[in-house]
Amino acid sequence: MLNVLLIANDCGHTGMIAATIPQKQLVDFVEDKGYEAVEFQNEDYDSTDTVESLKKECGYFTLKTLPDAEETY
Question: In Å, what is the CA distance from 15 to each residue of 4, 11?
Answer without folding.
Answer: 10, 12
